[in-house]
Design goal:
Layout: H1 2-16, E1 23-27, E2 30-33, H2 40-54, E3 71-73, H3 83-95, E4 103-105, H4 114-129, E5 133-141, E6 148-159, E7 163-165, H5 167-170
Parallel strand pairs: 3-4
Antiparallel strand pairs: 1-2, 5-6, 6-7
Helix pairs in contact: 1-2
Length: 171
Amino acid sequence: DSKKVLRHIEKCMRCVLGKSEPSARIGSNTFCLVMKNRFENDIQARLERISETANLFNKNGVNTFILEFRFGIYIPENKEEPFSSMMEKSSAVLNDLENNDVFKFFENSVKVSSEKKWELVRQAEISLSGCDFSVSYQPKVSLNDKRIIGAEAFINWHHPKLGLLYPSMFL
């Protein structure tokens, strides 16, 4: 049952994250975690704990699947950076992960080559006719009273080979 698995993952994240470190599910299998750590080793160790604990539900081999986690990580340079910018940067490195990699940290030198960008433009034209784009909404929540005060709309590209691509990767 997918809802049961998602609740289990959320519980595992809550056990590792502090009370003031929010997490959210932002896509079918995409989560956002905000951690206060600024040291790569600490962040990696905490993410490994989430991955290990999440798979404890299968320790008896009852389930026929294992949850695989992959993390694109961005450590902001200043506290004023918009959340959307942080998400774009962590998503960009997530899509650059090699086959067996689980973690990758964003570096300012990470850039998509112009050749790769033009290939994406060509593929986007094909995907437009194939209905490979979707719109998702992210609520804006007031930190004072936790009420929803608005929403942001995002367009996502469900690329046939590369998987889910965020706007920063193709716009």
